[in-house]
Write a structure and sequence with these properties.
The chain has helices at 17-20, 29-36, 53-66, 78-81, 91-106, 122-125, 133-150, 164-171, 183-206, 229-252, 257-265, 276-281, 338-350, 380-398, 441-452; strands at residues 2-4, 10-14, 71-75, 110-114, 156-161, 212-218, 222-224, 287-291, 296-299, 318-319, 327-328, 333-334, 356-360, 365-366, 372-373, 376-377, 403-409, 423-424, 428-430, 437-439, 454-456. By secondary structure, it is an alpha/beta fold.
Length: 458
């Protein structure tokens, strides 16, 4: 069967500054943390060992062209542009991003630019990071500088990538710096991130730029174990905390009332100012990027909460390991392609069918060298993964969902936070030692799909 996509569909991939660029003057939280605790990073590989996009951007963009990308998302590094977060702009950085953006446009590859992809300048974290409203203002200034510098040639902007992740990683579950476990501080970080987003949207609107502004959220559909009311309630609370805590403010301009009531009941609400609600209402977006990797399956708790333990989302639900689920054993994540359809239907039915696109979807696999045939990685498992997801995406579009494109994570195998190079995601294999790039079978498949704007499935 042939699956054809709408005209002008965005085919491409996503990456980020910190994970690809390499050598940088401005210190981020990642540089700081790695220098102090290299043991927290897979094989002790830190953020300096990347795919060196800072040197190889021109040839890498040629490879994007070879893969028939008509669009590509990456981020600007706040720490590279303004090393101390608030002071002088680095002119070399401005030149670098000018060159990258101009080259993408020249090659017919539309740049999608994210302003913040987990890479807080350490100077900003030192004064509290997103817990401090001064950092919110510093970010708004940084965003405005980016719009002024590049807004004439970048028509698709995103304030944040996966803003729930620094909340979870840095303030709840100890997998990002500053390794805090404190729900109320986490709630403050999430709240101030929404304020920072809204201030950037405000600045973009005030500048009357030709393009559009949005945000990229990783949405994890929450599925209850059963239709028992206790399981349904557990899934609802997980959805409120991990999806709707950002989805509702950016699409509806306000928080879900039941999330506010829940946090209030447990005395976990962040400090709010009277003018905040009007600002949040101004943060409604033009375009939503959806990162989808895995679903969240939950059940009601079957044991009492330890009252001495820190307040956590898991006070309200337990994770549920559904028998028979399909797993990616390397990442420990469930593979569930219909989830992409469920997200789109939810957006269509409950959020006014916003303009959206799949901004990330991907499959990390360990030790892909096992699959080399005639000098090329034959990653047919990745082709199967993409085509399954595209099939469900196609179904959503055919039923009226307003999805405009599909970007894969990622273009070239890149450094991935604490996992470093443990799992590879790219269309292109990276030899970290030599920096040699080799297109995988999935890259060839994707190039053909993008060229034809369609693919065949048996």
């Amino acid at each position: 069967m042939k699956y054809a996509f709408p005209d002008n569909f965005w085919w491409g991939s996503a990456s980020s500054a910190l994970q690809t660029e390499g050598a940088r003057e401005g210190e981020t939280t990642w540089d700081y943390w790695f220098a102090r605790e290299p043991n927290r990073f897979h094989n002790g590989v830190g953020p300096q060992q990347t795919s060196t996009f800072y040197q190889h951007w021109k040839t890498d963009i040629q490879l994007l062209k070879q893969l028939n990308h008509n669009s590509f998302r990456t981020s600007i590094s706040w720490a590279r542009l303004i090393p101390d977060g608030i002071g002088e702009v680095n002119p070399e950085t401005v030149d670098f991003y000018h060159q990258v953006i101009d080259e993408l446009n020249e090659q017919g590859i539309t740049p999608f630019i994210t302003l913040f992809h987990f890479d807080m300048p350490m100077a900003m974290q030192a004064i509290g990071g997103w817990e401090n409203r001064e950092v919110v203002d510093a970010y708004a200034r940084y965003a405005q500088i980016c719009f002024e510098l590049f807004g004439d040639r970048v028509l698709h902007w995103f304030t944040f990538n996966e803003p729930i992740v620094p909340v979870e990683g840095g303030y709840l579950y100890d997998f990002h710096y500053p390794n805090v476990v404190d729900f109320r501080r986490a709630a403050t970080v999430a709240y101030h991130t929404v304020l920072a987003h809204a201030k950037a949207v405000q600045a973009y609107r005030a500048g009357h730029y030709a393009g559009e502004i949005g945000i990229v959220l990783n949405l994890t559909p929450s599925y209850p174990r059963s239709q028992n009311p206790a399981d349904v309630k557990a899934a609802h609370i997980a959805d409120l905390m991990f999806n709707r805590s950002f989805l509702d403010p950016v699409l509806r301009g306000e928080y879900p009332a039941d999330l506010v009531a829940l946090l209030k009941a447990y005395d976990q609400l962040p400090a709010c100012k009277p003018e905040d609600s009007a600002l949040i209402a101004e943060g409604k977006i033009d375009l939503l990027g959806v990162n989808y990797y895995q679903p969240r399956r939950v059940k009601c708790r079957d044991s009492a909460v330890n009252p001495q333990a820190p307040f956590m989302p898991e006070w309200f639900f337990d994770n549920y390991d559904m028998p028979g689920r399909k797993m990616n054993p390397y990442r420990g994540w469930e593979i569930y392609a219909p989830g992409i359809y469920d997200i789109l239907v939810n957006l269509r039915d409950n959020y006014g069918n916003p303009r959206c696109f799949i901004s990330e979807n991907g499959m990390g696999v360990e030790n892909e060298q096992r699959f080399i045939e005639n000098g090329q990685i034959n990653d047919k498992y990745r082709i199967e993964f993409i085509s399954e997801h595209l099939t469900w995406l196609h179904k959503g579009i055919s039923e009226g969902c307003n999805c405009l494109g599909y970007h894969m994570w990622t273009f070239i195998d890149n450094w991935s936070w604490c996992n470093a190079y443990k799992n590879r995601y790219g269309f292109i294999q990276l030899d970290v030692e030599t920096q040699q790039r080799t297109i995988k079978k999935s890259g060839e498949w994707f190039a053909a799909t993008a060229l034809n704007n369609s693919f065949e499935q048996e």
